[in-house]
Amino acid sequence: MKKLLVPCDGSESASRAVRHAATEAIAGTATEIHLVHVIEPMTPIKLSEAFAAQRLDDRFPPQAAQALEPAVALLAQAGAKYSLHCLFGEPATEIAEYARTAGCDAIIMGTHGRGPFASLVIGSVATQVVKLADIPVTLVK
Fold first, then answer.
1. Which residue from 48, 95, 97, 100 lies 20 to 30 Å from 87 (Cα-Cα)?
2. At what angle do helices 125-132 and 91-102 cross, to 10 degrees?
3. Rounded to two decimals, what is the model's pTM?
4. CA dist list (Å): 77 to 27, 39, 72
5. Alpha-carbon torsion 81, 86, 91, 96, what sign?
6. Average model confidence (pLDDT) for the chain?
7. What ranges do the domains of the chain cover?
């Protein structure tokens, strides 16, 4: 079974990556999509988000549930097989490490498209994942 890792932060670019992964899953051989949300240490959680996890799964912190919910809806609608994961730490490092330990075949992730200068100055999770991962990384704009 082919395993695709799709990091989800709740953004539109992440949704585009999920749609791309779903298309690959439907068109190809048996595929499982691993949806991953990474929470950076010291990320504030608003009290109003406290009930978001009820809509997805009580296992996830509210901000993870909120970020994963649109991706879950897209994959359920497409009929794609998926699993959900919430990690804690530096996003690029956690994504690359999860891909290794889970035996993923590829990473499909969105990019916010800030441009080369902004990425140079502030960095980009996508750029860091490309550097850290030892499997193919597809960036969806």
1. 48
2. 40
3. 0.82
4. 15, 26, 8
5. negative
6. 83
7. 2-140
pLDDT in tens, 95-120: 999 999 999 999 999 987 555 554 54
Residues contacting 65, CB < 8 A, separation 6+: 52, 53, 54, 55, 56, 57
Dump strand ranges (E) for 1-141. 2-7, 31-39, 81-88, 106-110, 137-140
- Quote the tokens at residue 125: 């999770």
Q: Which residues contact 44 (CB under 8 A, 6 or more apart)?
A: none
CATH assignment of 2-140, among 1.10.3210.10, 3.40.50.720, 3.40.720.10, 3.40.50.620: 3.40.50.620
* pLDDT tens string 24-54: 888 877 799 999 999 987 655 543 344 333 3
> Dihedral (C-alpha) 105, 90, 65, 136: value to the nearest 10 degrees?
-20
Q: Give the C-alpha separation, 130 to 124, whole Å.
A: 10
Beta-strand ranges (E) seen in 2-112 are 2-7, 31-39, 81-88, 106-110
Higher-scoring residue by pLDDT: 122, 104:
104
